[in-house]
Every structure is written in C-alpha cells, then in structure tokens.
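quick q for whoever's on today - can somebody do inverse folding on this one?? i tried earlier but teh output was garbage lol. tokens:
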C-alpha cells in the first residue's frame, strides 16, 4: 500500500487528480479551495498534500481552538488547522510533506479546520 501511495505522489506532483487502471479517482485539494468552499465541504473527506508545521503556525492562520494541541498544515495557497496533532508528532514531523485524508469541519463561529483520518509522508 505504501508503495502505491508513493507512486501516486510522483504522478500527482503536477496534477490535481489521477485515475489508475480504471479504479478510484483521487482529487488533491489545495488549502485555499477548502477554505473558500468550507460550508459545502463540511462532513466530506478531502485529500490534501501539504507541509506539516506542527505548532509553528503562520500568524495569519486562524486557530479554531478545538484542543490545546491543535496544529496546522500549509501549502502554496494557504494554511489550515488540524484538530489536535493530526496523528503526527509536532516536533519530529514538523516541516515534512504529507498526504492527508481528512474530514472538513467548522467551529460554531465558522472557522474551518480538518479532522485527520489518515496521513502518509511524501518521500
């Protein structure tokens, strides 16, 4: 499975989606697209390729304040928080690129964030 994911990353580096052998089509979302369409994505699972920043989040990144451990990810289009640590180590995994499968959620005040289902490091 990890080998398939690695091959998929190589193929996806220049694409927003890919279909292999007539099987599942995976669409890679960028962070700004998730933030701009958050209300229509609530409860849906998205796939994002981004750099894990742990607790070292950019100042413009809006913290949803779900847990004390909330962390964030960034790509070239923006920054979004993850609920908790996103199942990663905020110190060891910081600045590594991952492919995240996550559910889109919002707080009562409308702050969009991701609840990580699975993450795989891009090598």
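ok took a stab at it. sequence:
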């Amino acid at each position: 499975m990890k080998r398939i994911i690695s091959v998929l990353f190589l193929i996806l580096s220049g694409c927003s989606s890919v279909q292999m052998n007539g099987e599942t089509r995976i669409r890679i979302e960028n962070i700004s697209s998730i933030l701009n369409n958050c209300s229509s994505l609530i409860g849906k699972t998205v796939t994002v390729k981004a750099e894990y920043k742990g607790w070292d989040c950019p100042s413009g990144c809006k913290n949803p304040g779900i847990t004390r451990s909330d962390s964030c990810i960034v790509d070239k289009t923006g920054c979004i928080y993850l609920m908790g640590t996103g199942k990663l180590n905020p110190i060891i995994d910081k600045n590594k690129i991952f492919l995240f499968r996550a559910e889109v959620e919002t707080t009562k005040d409308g702050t969009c964030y991701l609840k990580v289902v699975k993450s795989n490091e891009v090598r």
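fwiw Confidence is low (pLDDT under 50) at residues 2-15. also Helices lie at 2-12, 31-36, 38-41. so keep that in mind when u check it
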